[in-house]
Amino acid sequence: MFAKQKDKKLNEITTIIGSGTTIKGQLHIESSIRIDGKVFGEVKCLGDVTIGKEGYVENALSARNLFIAGTMKGNANIENKIHIYETGFLDGSAEMQTIVIDEKGHFNGKSMMKGNKDMSIKGNIVDIEQEKSKEEK
């Protein structure tokens, strides 16, 4: 029962930063947020972050999912998915499980895909035999 309430809370956008608003400092959100204004500072969100077309975020951002129609400059550490829409711009490093970039969407920086397993890479070839022996132990 509590898990359903927590999921519902994370899915609800309970905070909206309007287009005429500028925030400087840290934000900690326990639900989801939509940013149509400007945020200069660290954003820590347990739910989803949506950056609207006019939205701008600069600095570090962590969230469950990140949807970008505006601009994000900085480091994004996302549990699941980043989706950059055709008007979106991400400039910085991004760590996530999945990334979707629409046609005309922009990503300038470094990306790291979070995986379920660490894999040893030698050159361009994955050492599958080494991974098999690890699993057997």
Q: What is the terminal separation in angstroms?
A: 38 Å
The class by helix and strand makeup works out as: mainly beta
Number of helices: 2
Rg on CA atoms, Å: 17 Å
The largest β sheet comes out as: 10 strands, parallel
According to DSSP, the number of beta strands is 18
**What general form does the structure show?**
globular
Along the chain, the helix and strand elements come as HEEEEEEEEEEEEEEEEEEH
The pLDDT mean sits at: 86
The proportion of strand residues reads over 45%
> Helix amount, in percent?
10-25%
Q: Spans with pLDDT under 50 lasting ≥5 residues? A: 118-128
Q: Which secondary structure elements does this structure contain, and how are they paired or packed?
A:
Elements: H1 2-11, E1 13-17, E2 22-24, E3 27-29, E4 32-35, E5 38-40, E6 43-45, E7 48-51, E8 56-58, E9 61-63, E10 65-68, E11 71-73, E12 76-78, E13 81-84, E14 89-96, E15 98-101, E16 106-113, E17 121-122, E18 125-126, H2 128-136
Parallel strand pairs: 1-4, 2-5, 3-6, 4-7, 5-8, 6-9, 7-10, 8-11, 9-12, 10-13, 11-14, 12-14, 13-15, 14-16
Antiparallel strand pairs: 17-18
